[in-house]
Amino acid sequence: MAEPIPIIGGTGALGYGLAVRWAQAGEHVVIGSRQAERAAEAADRVRAAAPDAEVEGLQNAEAAGRGPIVFLTVPFRAQSETLTNLRDALQPGQILVDCTVPTAAAFGGKASRTIGVWQGSAAQQAEEMAPEGVTVISALHTVSAPALAGGEAVEEDVLICGDRKTDKARVAELVERIDGLRAVNAGALETARIVETLTPLLIAINARYKSRAGIRITGLPDDHWG
Amino acid sequence: MAEPIPIIGGTGALGYGLAVRWAQAGEHVVIGSRQAERAAEAADRVRAAAPDAEVEGLQNAEAAGRGPIVFLTVPFRAQSETLTNLRDALQPGQILVDCTVPTAAAFGGKASRTIGVWQGSAAQQAEEMAPEGVTVISALHTVSAPALAGGEAVEEDVLICGDRKTDKARVAELVERIDGLRAVNAGALETARIVETLTPLLIAINARYKSRAGIRITGLPDDHWG
Protein backbone atom coordinates (compact mmCIF):
# COMPACT_ATOMS: atom_id res chain seq x y z
CA MET A 1 0.00 0.00 0.00
CA ALA A 2 1.28 3.43 -1.01
CA GLU A 3 2.45 5.80 1.70
CA PRO A 4 0.85 9.19 2.34
CA ILE A 5 2.09 12.28 0.51
CA PRO A 6 2.64 15.28 2.78
CA ILE A 7 2.25 18.65 1.05
CA ILE A 8 3.65 21.50 3.13
CA GLY A 9 1.80 24.65 2.17
CA GLY A 10 -0.92 22.52 0.67
CA THR A 11 -3.48 25.28 1.03
CA GLY A 12 -1.63 27.36 -1.58
CA ALA A 13 -2.38 27.21 -5.30
CA LEU A 14 0.22 24.64 -6.38
CA GLY A 15 -0.02 22.49 -3.25
CA TYR A 16 -3.78 22.38 -3.45
CA GLY A 17 -3.73 21.53 -7.17
CA LEU A 18 -1.30 18.66 -6.55
CA ALA A 19 -3.41 17.42 -3.63
CA VAL A 20 -6.52 17.27 -5.82
CA ARG A 21 -4.76 15.37 -8.60
CA TRP A 22 -3.06 12.88 -6.31
CA ALA A 23 -6.27 12.31 -4.39
CA GLN A 24 -8.10 11.69 -7.66
CA ALA A 25 -5.35 9.20 -8.57
CA GLY A 26 -6.05 7.28 -5.37
CA GLU A 27 -3.12 8.54 -3.33
CA HIS A 28 -3.39 9.33 0.36
CA VAL A 29 -2.68 13.04 0.71
CA VAL A 30 -1.75 15.00 3.84
CA ILE A 31 -2.19 18.74 3.50
CA GLY A 32 -0.01 20.83 5.76
CA SER A 33 -0.56 24.44 6.70
CA ARG A 34 0.65 26.79 9.39
CA GLN A 35 -2.85 26.63 10.86
CA ALA A 36 -4.49 23.25 11.40
CA GLU A 37 -7.95 24.69 10.70
CA ARG A 38 -6.92 25.96 7.28
CA ALA A 39 -5.37 22.58 6.50
CA ALA A 40 -8.57 20.80 7.53
CA GLU A 41 -10.65 23.16 5.42
CA ALA A 42 -8.47 22.53 2.35
CA ALA A 43 -8.68 18.79 3.00
CA ASP A 44 -12.48 19.09 2.93
CA ARG A 45 -12.30 20.80 -0.45
CA VAL A 46 -9.99 18.10 -1.81
CA ARG A 47 -12.39 15.41 -0.59
CA ALA A 48 -15.20 17.19 -2.41
CA ALA A 49 -13.17 16.93 -5.63
CA ALA A 50 -12.11 13.33 -4.93
CA PRO A 51 -14.84 11.75 -2.76
CA ASP A 52 -13.17 8.34 -2.39
CA ALA A 53 -9.79 9.71 -1.39
CA GLU A 54 -8.04 9.59 1.93
CA VAL A 55 -7.14 13.19 2.74
CA GLU A 56 -5.93 14.69 5.98
CA GLY A 57 -5.29 18.29 6.98
CA LEU A 58 -2.65 18.92 9.66
CA GLN A 59 -0.23 21.55 10.87
CA ASN A 60 2.92 21.60 8.73
CA ALA A 61 5.25 19.96 11.24
CA GLU A 62 2.80 17.15 11.90
CA ALA A 63 2.10 16.66 8.20
CA ALA A 64 5.82 16.47 7.39
CA GLY A 65 6.20 13.31 9.44
CA ARG A 66 3.41 11.41 7.71
CA GLY A 67 5.25 10.20 4.59
CA PRO A 68 8.69 9.57 3.12
CA ILE A 69 8.50 12.14 0.31
CA VAL A 70 7.52 15.62 1.46
CA PHE A 71 6.53 18.35 -1.00
CA LEU A 72 7.31 21.95 -0.08
CA THR A 73 4.92 24.26 -1.95
CA VAL A 74 5.00 27.44 0.13
CA PRO A 75 5.74 30.82 -1.49
CA PHE A 76 9.49 31.45 -1.70
CA ARG A 77 9.30 34.23 0.88
CA ALA A 78 8.07 31.65 3.41
CA GLN A 79 10.56 28.91 2.49
CA SER A 80 13.23 29.79 5.02
CA GLU A 81 10.86 30.21 7.97
CA THR A 82 9.00 27.03 7.07
CA LEU A 83 12.20 24.98 6.93
CA THR A 84 13.30 26.38 10.28
CA ASN A 85 9.98 25.25 11.74
CA LEU A 86 10.37 21.78 10.19
CA ARG A 87 13.87 21.20 11.56
CA ASP A 88 12.70 18.71 14.18
CA ALA A 89 9.92 17.26 12.06
CA LEU A 90 11.96 16.08 9.07
CA GLN A 91 13.89 12.85 9.64
CA PRO A 92 16.98 11.30 7.99
CA GLY A 93 15.97 9.23 4.99
CA GLN A 94 13.12 11.49 3.99
CA ILE A 95 13.09 13.27 0.64
CA LEU A 96 12.14 16.93 0.58
CA VAL A 97 10.86 18.10 -2.80
CA ASP A 98 11.34 21.82 -3.10
CA CYS A 99 8.81 23.48 -5.43
CA THR A 100 9.44 27.08 -4.44
CA VAL A 101 10.20 29.73 -7.05
CA PRO A 102 12.48 32.67 -6.28
CA THR A 103 10.88 35.59 -8.13
CA ALA A 104 10.74 39.28 -7.38
CA ALA A 105 7.17 38.70 -6.15
CA ALA A 106 8.84 37.66 -2.88
CA PHE A 107 9.34 41.35 -2.13
CA GLY A 108 6.55 42.92 -4.12
CA GLY A 109 8.19 42.89 -7.58
CA LYS A 110 7.14 41.16 -10.79
CA ALA A 111 6.64 37.40 -10.84
CA SER A 112 8.19 37.43 -14.32
CA ARG A 113 11.55 38.46 -12.85
CA THR A 114 13.93 36.12 -11.08
CA ILE A 115 15.95 36.95 -8.01
CA GLY A 116 19.41 35.65 -7.22
CA VAL A 117 19.69 33.26 -4.31
CA TRP A 118 23.14 33.17 -2.71
CA GLN A 119 23.23 29.36 -2.69
CA GLY A 120 22.42 29.32 -6.40
CA SER A 121 18.75 28.34 -6.23
CA ALA A 122 15.85 27.99 -3.84
CA ALA A 123 16.47 24.23 -3.91
CA GLN A 124 20.06 24.66 -2.81
CA GLN A 125 18.92 27.00 -0.04
CA ALA A 126 16.53 24.26 1.05
CA GLU A 127 19.39 21.76 0.99
CA GLU A 128 21.47 24.02 3.19
CA MET A 129 18.61 24.29 5.68
CA ALA A 130 17.27 20.73 5.62
CA PRO A 131 18.34 18.45 8.50
CA GLU A 132 21.29 16.11 7.93
CA GLY A 133 20.23 13.01 6.02
CA VAL A 134 17.26 14.61 4.29
CA THR A 135 17.72 14.64 0.52
CA VAL A 136 16.50 17.65 -1.40
CA ILE A 137 15.03 17.27 -4.87
CA SER A 138 13.75 20.14 -7.02
CA ALA A 139 10.60 19.70 -9.10
CA LEU A 140 7.21 20.97 -10.27
CA HIS A 141 8.07 24.52 -11.27
CA THR A 142 6.39 24.52 -14.65
CA VAL A 143 2.98 22.99 -14.01
CA SER A 144 0.14 25.48 -13.91
CA ALA A 145 -1.48 25.45 -10.47
CA PRO A 146 -4.90 26.62 -11.74
CA ALA A 147 -4.79 23.98 -14.50
CA LEU A 148 -4.19 21.29 -11.87
CA ALA A 149 -6.83 22.55 -9.47
CA GLY A 150 -9.33 23.23 -12.25
CA GLY A 151 -9.16 19.70 -13.57
CA GLU A 152 -7.87 20.78 -16.99
CA ALA A 153 -6.15 18.18 -19.14
CA VAL A 154 -2.38 18.67 -18.99
CA GLU A 155 0.15 17.08 -21.32
CA GLU A 156 3.60 18.20 -20.27
CA ASP A 157 6.85 17.46 -18.48
CA VAL A 158 8.08 17.98 -14.95
CA LEU A 159 11.81 18.64 -14.74
CA ILE A 160 13.45 16.98 -11.76
CA CYS A 161 16.84 18.04 -10.41
CA GLY A 162 18.82 16.28 -7.71
CA ASP A 163 22.11 14.65 -6.95
CA ARG A 164 20.98 11.00 -6.76
CA LYS A 165 19.12 9.36 -9.60
CA THR A 166 17.37 6.84 -7.34
CA ASP A 167 15.83 9.63 -5.27
CA LYS A 168 14.80 11.49 -8.42
CA ALA A 169 13.21 8.31 -9.73
CA ARG A 170 11.08 7.99 -6.56
CA VAL A 171 9.81 11.53 -7.00
CA ALA A 172 9.28 10.87 -10.71
CA GLU A 173 7.02 7.96 -9.85
CA LEU A 174 4.74 10.17 -7.74
CA VAL A 175 4.74 12.93 -10.37
CA GLU A 176 3.68 10.44 -13.03
CA ARG A 177 0.74 9.30 -10.92
CA ILE A 178 -0.85 12.52 -12.17
CA ASP A 179 -2.45 12.07 -15.57
CA GLY A 180 -0.59 13.79 -18.38
CA LEU A 181 2.62 14.54 -16.49
CA ARG A 182 5.94 13.00 -17.55
CA ALA A 183 8.97 13.32 -15.29
CA VAL A 184 12.32 14.22 -16.87
CA ASN A 185 15.72 13.90 -15.22
CA ALA A 186 17.01 17.45 -15.62
CA GLY A 187 20.37 17.02 -13.93
CA ALA A 188 22.08 17.74 -10.63
CA LEU A 189 20.48 19.86 -7.91
CA GLU A 190 22.58 22.83 -9.01
CA THR A 191 20.64 22.81 -12.30
CA ALA A 192 17.58 23.90 -10.28
CA ARG A 193 18.83 27.46 -10.69
CA ILE A 194 17.89 27.15 -14.35
CA VAL A 195 14.66 25.21 -13.92
CA GLU A 196 13.38 27.62 -11.27
CA THR A 197 13.57 30.43 -13.83
CA LEU A 198 11.14 28.60 -16.10
CA THR A 199 8.26 29.77 -13.91
CA PRO A 200 8.88 33.46 -14.62
CA LEU A 201 9.45 32.54 -18.28
CA LEU A 202 6.06 30.83 -18.46
CA ILE A 203 4.49 33.77 -16.63
CA ALA A 204 5.89 36.07 -19.35
CA ILE A 205 4.53 33.74 -22.03
CA ASN A 206 1.13 33.44 -20.33
CA ALA A 207 0.88 37.22 -20.15
CA ARG A 208 1.15 37.31 -23.97
CA TYR A 209 -1.01 34.31 -24.83
CA LYS A 210 -3.58 34.31 -22.01
CA SER A 211 -2.52 30.68 -21.65
CA ARG A 212 -1.62 28.21 -18.95
CA ALA A 213 1.57 27.14 -20.62
CA GLY A 214 3.80 24.25 -19.61
CA ILE A 215 7.05 22.73 -20.83
CA ARG A 216 7.73 19.66 -22.93
CA ILE A 217 11.24 18.38 -23.65
CA THR A 218 11.36 17.01 -27.18
CA GLY A 219 13.66 14.32 -28.55
CA LEU A 220 13.93 12.11 -25.45
CA PRO A 221 13.98 8.31 -25.61
CA ASP A 222 10.85 6.54 -24.35
CA ASP A 223 12.52 4.75 -21.47
CA HIS A 224 13.66 7.91 -19.85
CA TRP A 225 14.35 6.61 -16.34
CA GLY A 226 16.01 3.39 -17.54
CA MET B 1 11.12 37.74 -53.74
CA ALA B 2 12.55 36.96 -50.30
CA GLU B 3 15.67 38.78 -49.18
CA PRO B 4 18.96 37.02 -48.33
CA ILE B 5 19.60 35.81 -44.79
CA PRO B 6 23.06 36.72 -43.47
CA ILE B 7 24.42 34.31 -40.86
CA ILE B 8 27.41 35.75 -39.00
CA GLY B 9 29.55 32.87 -37.80
CA GLY B 10 27.80 30.64 -40.30
CA THR B 11 30.70 28.20 -40.36
CA GLY B 12 29.96 27.22 -36.74
CA ALA B 13 27.65 24.37 -35.76
CA LEU B 14 24.40 26.33 -35.24
CA GLY B 15 24.98 28.79 -38.09
CA TYR B 16 25.80 26.03 -40.50
CA GLY B 17 22.77 23.98 -39.46
CA LEU B 18 20.48 26.97 -39.97
CA ALA B 19 22.07 27.70 -43.34
CA VAL B 20 21.41 24.14 -44.53
CA ARG B 21 17.76 24.22 -43.44
CA TRP B 22 17.01 27.63 -44.88
CA ALA B 23 18.75 26.74 -48.13
CA GLN B 24 16.67 23.56 -48.33
CA ALA B 25 13.56 25.70 -47.73
CA GLY B 26 14.48 27.82 -50.78
CA GLU B 27 15.88 30.81 -48.93
CA HIS B 28 18.91 32.71 -50.15
CA VAL B 29 21.58 32.31 -47.47
CA VAL B 30 24.73 34.35 -46.93
CA ILE B 31 27.29 32.68 -44.71
CA GLY B 32 29.63 35.03 -42.92
CA SER B 33 32.97 34.13 -41.39
CA ARG B 34 36.07 35.97 -40.23
CA GLN B 35 37.85 34.47 -43.23
CA ALA B 36 36.25 34.70 -46.66
CA GLU B 37 37.77 31.33 -47.70
CA ARG B 38 36.17 29.51 -44.79
CA ALA B 39 32.83 31.14 -45.60
CA ALA B 40 33.14 30.08 -49.24
CA GLU B 41 34.02 26.54 -48.20
CA ALA B 42 30.96 26.34 -45.90
CA ALA B 43 28.78 27.75 -48.68
CA ASP B 44 30.00 24.90 -50.92
CA ARG B 45 28.97 22.37 -48.29
CA VAL B 46 25.53 23.99 -47.94
CA ARG B 47 25.07 23.86 -51.72
CA ALA B 48 25.94 20.16 -51.64
CA ALA B 49 23.10 19.66 -49.13
CA ALA B 50 20.70 21.94 -51.03
CA PRO B 51 21.73 21.86 -54.72
CA ASP B 52 19.10 24.32 -55.96
CA ALA B 53 19.80 26.94 -53.33
CA GLU B 54 21.38 30.32 -53.66
CA VAL B 55 24.22 30.37 -51.12
CA GLU B 56 27.07 32.83 -50.75
CA GLY B 57 30.10 32.82 -48.46
CA LEU B 58 31.54 36.20 -47.48
CA GLN B 59 33.53 37.88 -44.76
CA ASN B 60 31.32 38.75 -41.78
CA ALA B 61 31.16 42.50 -42.38
CA GLU B 62 30.26 42.04 -46.02
CA ALA B 63 27.70 39.34 -45.23
CA ALA B 64 26.02 41.54 -42.60
CA GLY B 65 24.99 44.07 -45.23
CA ARG B 66 23.29 41.55 -47.50
CA GLY B 67 19.92 41.25 -45.78
CA PRO B 68 17.56 42.97 -43.34
CA ILE B 69 17.61 40.28 -40.64
CA VAL B 70 21.10 39.25 -39.54
CA PHE B 71 21.71 36.14 -37.41
CA LEU B 72 24.64 36.18 -35.01
CA THR B 73 25.71 32.59 -34.30
CA VAL B 74 29.30 33.00 -33.12
CA PRO B 75 30.44 31.46 -29.80
CA PHE B 76 29.72 33.79 -26.89
CA ARG B 77 33.42 34.44 -26.31
CA ALA B 78 33.58 35.97 -29.82
CA GLN B 79 30.35 38.00 -29.55
CA SER B 80 31.89 41.22 -28.33
CA GLU B 81 34.76 41.29 -30.84
CA THR B 82 32.42 40.35 -33.69
CA LEU B 83 30.00 43.17 -32.86
CA THR B 84 32.86 45.64 -32.65
CA ASN B 85 33.92 44.56 -36.14
CA LEU B 86 30.35 44.91 -37.44
CA ARG B 87 29.88 48.44 -36.11
CA ASP B 88 30.13 50.03 -39.55
CA ALA B 89 28.50 47.16 -41.40
CA LEU B 90 25.15 47.09 -39.58
CA GLN B 91 22.70 49.80 -40.61
CA PRO B 92 19.69 51.42 -38.91
CA GLY B 93 16.53 49.43 -39.61
CA GLN B 94 18.27 46.08 -39.60
CA ILE B 95 17.36 43.40 -37.09
CA LEU B 96 20.19 41.57 -35.35
CA VAL B 97 19.15 38.16 -34.01
CA ASP B 98 21.49 37.17 -31.21
CA CYS B 99 21.83 33.39 -30.82
CA THR B 100 24.86 33.36 -28.53
CA VAL B 101 24.84 31.44 -25.27
CA PRO B 102 26.79 32.64 -22.25
CA THR B 103 28.10 29.43 -20.65
CA ALA B 104 31.26 28.68 -18.70
CA ALA B 105 32.61 27.10 -21.89
CA ALA B 106 33.54 30.69 -22.85
CA PHE B 107 36.53 30.37 -20.49
CA GLY B 108 37.10 26.65 -20.48
CA GLY B 109 34.39 25.62 -18.00
CA LYS B 110 31.37 23.38 -18.42
CA ALA B 111 28.80 24.15 -21.11
CA SER B 112 26.13 23.03 -18.63
CA ARG B 113 26.89 26.04 -16.42
CA THR B 114 25.73 29.56 -17.11
CA ILE B 115 27.75 32.70 -16.55
CA GLY B 116 26.39 36.05 -15.47
CA VAL B 117 26.52 38.83 -18.02
CA TRP B 118 26.55 42.31 -16.51
CA GLN B 119 23.85 43.55 -18.88
CA GLY B 120 21.62 40.63 -17.88
CA SER B 121 22.03 38.45 -20.95
CA ALA B 122 24.13 38.01 -24.06
CA ALA B 123 21.26 39.55 -26.01
CA GLN B 124 21.30 42.67 -23.86
CA GLN B 125 25.06 42.90 -24.29
CA ALA B 126 24.46 42.73 -28.04
CA GLU B 127 21.88 45.49 -27.74
CA GLU B 128 24.35 47.67 -25.87
CA MET B 129 26.94 47.15 -28.60
CA ALA B 130 24.75 47.24 -31.71
CA PRO B 131 24.71 50.51 -33.68
CA GLU B 132 21.87 52.97 -33.02
CA GLY B 133 18.72 51.97 -34.88
CA VAL B 134 19.55 48.27 -35.06
CA THR B 135 16.98 46.20 -33.16
CA VAL B 136 18.23 43.17 -31.23
CA ILE B 137 16.10 40.05 -30.97
CA SER B 138 17.08 36.91 -29.07
CA ALA B 139 16.29 33.48 -30.52
CA LEU B 140 17.34 29.95 -31.43
CA HIS B 141 18.99 28.84 -28.19
CA THR B 142 17.25 25.49 -27.86
CA VAL B 143 17.50 23.96 -31.32
CA SER B 144 20.12 21.24 -31.62
CA ALA B 145 22.79 22.29 -34.12
CA PRO B 146 23.72 18.70 -35.07
CA ALA B 147 20.04 17.82 -35.52
CA LEU B 148 19.67 20.74 -37.94
CA ALA B 149 22.87 20.02 -39.86
CA GLY B 150 22.22 16.26 -39.87
CA GLY B 151 18.80 16.63 -41.45
CA GLU B 152 16.99 15.04 -38.50
CA ALA B 153 13.29 15.69 -38.12
CA VAL B 154 12.69 18.33 -35.44
CA GLU B 155 9.35 19.13 -33.83
CA GLU B 156 9.90 21.89 -31.32
CA ASP B 157 9.64 25.56 -30.43
CA VAL B 158 11.96 28.52 -30.79
CA LEU B 159 11.53 31.10 -28.05
CA ILE B 160 11.85 34.66 -29.28
CA CYS B 161 12.55 37.60 -26.98
CA GLY B 162 12.51 41.24 -27.94
CA ASP B 163 10.94 44.56 -27.17
CA ARG B 164 8.79 44.99 -30.30
CA LYS B 165 6.30 42.38 -31.36
CA THR B 166 6.44 43.35 -35.05
CA ASP B 167 10.21 42.71 -35.13
CA LYS B 168 9.75 39.41 -33.31
CA ALA B 169 7.09 38.42 -35.81
CA ARG B 170 9.49 39.02 -38.71
CA VAL B 171 12.07 36.77 -37.11
CA ALA B 172 9.34 34.23 -36.31
CA GLU B 173 8.46 34.05 -39.98
CA LEU B 174 12.01 33.11 -40.94
CA VAL B 175 12.26 30.59 -38.09
CA GLU B 176 9.06 28.90 -39.24
CA ARG B 177 10.43 28.52 -42.76
CA ILE B 178 12.34 25.61 -41.21
CA ASP B 179 10.25 22.46 -41.11
CA GLY B 180 9.12 21.47 -37.61
CA LEU B 181 10.01 24.72 -35.86
CA ARG B 182 7.32 26.87 -34.25
CA ALA B 183 8.19 30.36 -33.02
CA VAL B 184 6.88 31.45 -29.62
CA ASN B 185 6.79 35.01 -28.31
CA ALA B 186 8.70 34.59 -25.04
CA GLY B 187 8.58 38.17 -23.85
CA ALA B 188 10.75 41.27 -23.68
CA LEU B 189 14.45 41.21 -24.52
CA GLU B 190 15.27 41.08 -20.79
CA THR B 191 13.67 37.62 -20.69
CA ALA B 192 16.57 36.42 -22.83
CA ARG B 193 18.48 35.95 -19.59
CA ILE B 194 16.16 33.04 -18.85
CA VAL B 195 15.94 31.63 -22.37
CA GLU B 196 19.73 31.66 -22.78
CA THR B 197 20.01 29.31 -19.79
CA LEU B 198 17.90 26.70 -21.58
CA THR B 199 20.95 25.70 -23.63
CA PRO B 200 22.94 24.56 -20.58
CA LEU B 201 19.75 22.91 -19.27
CA LEU B 202 19.34 20.92 -22.48
CA ILE B 203 23.05 20.06 -22.40
CA ALA B 204 22.53 18.63 -18.89
CA ILE B 205 19.52 16.66 -20.12
CA ASN B 206 21.33 15.43 -23.23
CA ALA B 207 24.21 14.20 -21.06
CA ARG B 208 21.73 11.95 -19.25
CA TYR B 209 19.62 10.77 -22.17
CA LYS B 210 22.17 10.75 -25.04
CA SER B 211 19.53 12.84 -26.80
CA ARG B 212 19.29 15.96 -28.91
CA ALA B 213 16.56 17.48 -26.82
CA GLY B 214 14.55 20.59 -27.63
CA ILE B 215 11.78 22.60 -25.97
CA ARG B 216 8.06 22.69 -26.60
CA ILE B 217 5.72 25.12 -24.83
CA THR B 218 2.42 23.37 -24.13
CA GLY B 219 -1.00 24.96 -23.76
CA LEU B 220 -0.63 27.78 -26.31
CA PRO B 221 -3.44 28.89 -28.60
CA ASP B 222 -3.03 28.01 -32.29
CA ASP B 223 -2.87 31.56 -33.54
CA HIS B 224 0.11 32.43 -31.48
CA TRP B 225 1.28 35.56 -33.33
CA GLY B 226 -2.23 36.97 -33.78
The outline of chain A comes out as: globular
Mean pLDDT of chain A: 96
How large is the radius of gyration of chain A?
16 Å
Q: Unreliable stretches of chain A, pLDDT < 50, 5 or more residues?
A: none
Helicity level of chain A: 25-40%
In DSSP terms, counting alpha (H) and pi (I) runs of 4 or more, how many helices of chain A? 9
Biggest protein-protein contact in the assembly:
A-B, 40 and 40 residues
Main beta-sheet annotation of chain A: 6 strands, parallel
What's the total count of β strands of chain A? 9
* Helix/strand/pairing category of chain A: alpha/beta
Strand content of chain A: 15-25%
Query: Whole-Å distance between the termini of chain A?
Result: 24 Å
User: Which strands sit side by side, in order, in the main sheet of chain A?
Assistant: 3-2-1-4-5-6
- Quaternary structure state of the chains depicted: homodimer
Strand and helix order of chain A: EHEHEHEHEHEHEHEHHE
How would you characterize the overall build of this protein?
2 copies of one chain form a homodimer. Chain A has 226 residues and is an alpha/beta fold. Chain A contains 9 helices and 9 strands. Chain A has a 6-stranded parallel sheet with strand order 3-2-1-4-5-6, with helices on both faces. Chain A has a two-stranded parallel ribbon with strand order 7-8. In chain A, helix 5 (122-129) links the parallel strand 5 and strand 6 (135-138). The interface between A and B is large, with 40 and 40 residues. Strand 9 (214-218) of chain A pairs antiparallel with strand 9 (214-218) of chain B.
